[in-house]
C-alpha cells in the first residue's frame, strides 16, 4: 500500500533499535537515488556518501567505545559497543566545502536536505534510520577510517539503517507555537 508524502513525513521516526536483518542493497540505492534530488543552491550537489561495510563499521564502533571509556568508563563503553554492534547498515554523509562561508552554509543545508530525503525514502520502504553526529564523527581517526580528506569534505553525519525493532511514539508542538504571521 502506497503512503502519501504527508503520511511518510508524519510517520517517520528516529530508530534506536533495529532488527538484525540487513535491508536489500537495491532498496538503499533506490533511496539514494531519491535523496539526490534535494534542493541545493547553484546545483552544487555537495553531498558524498560512504557505504560502510562490517569491517569499517566495527572499527568505528571500537573508536567510539574508546572515546566513551575515557569519558564515562568501561561499563558505558561496553554498553555502547554492544548497541553499535547491532546496527545492521551504516552510511556516512559528507559535505564538500567551497571556501566561501555563505555558500558553505548553503551547501551544508543542502546536505541536511539530502539526509532528510534519504531517511524519508527509506521510511517509505519500511526501513528505519538514525542520523548520528556524535563526537566520534569529529575524530581525525574517523576521517582516516573512511579515507576522508578533511580539506575537501566535512562529515555531516552517520546514518544507521535497518528494519525497526521498535517504532517510538512522537508528538510535535502545534503550528501556532512557532508560526508568526506578519502584515
Give your account of this protein's structure.
The protein is α+β, with helices and mostly antiparallel strands. Helices cover 44% and strands 15% of the residues. It is built from 6 helices and 4 strands. It has a 4-stranded antiparallel beta sheet. It starts with a helix and ends in a 21-residue tail after the last strand. The mean pLDDT is 96.
- Indicate the proportion of strand residues: 5-15%
The rounded distance between the terminal residues' Cα atoms is 43 Å
Structural class: alpha+beta
For the sheet with most strands, the description reads:
4 strands, antiparallel
What is the spatial order of strands in the main beta sheet?
Answer: 1-2-4-3
Please write out the topology.
Blueprint: H1 5-11, H2 25-35, E1 47-52, H3 54-72, H4 74-85, E2 89-95, H5 101-124, E3 128-132, H6 140-146, E4 154-162
Antiparallel strand pairs: 1-2, 2-4, 3-4
Essential attributes:
single chain; 183 residues; alpha+beta; 4-stranded antiparallel β-sheet; 4 strands; globular
Q: What's this entry about, in short?
A:
Helices cover 44% and strands 15% of the residues.
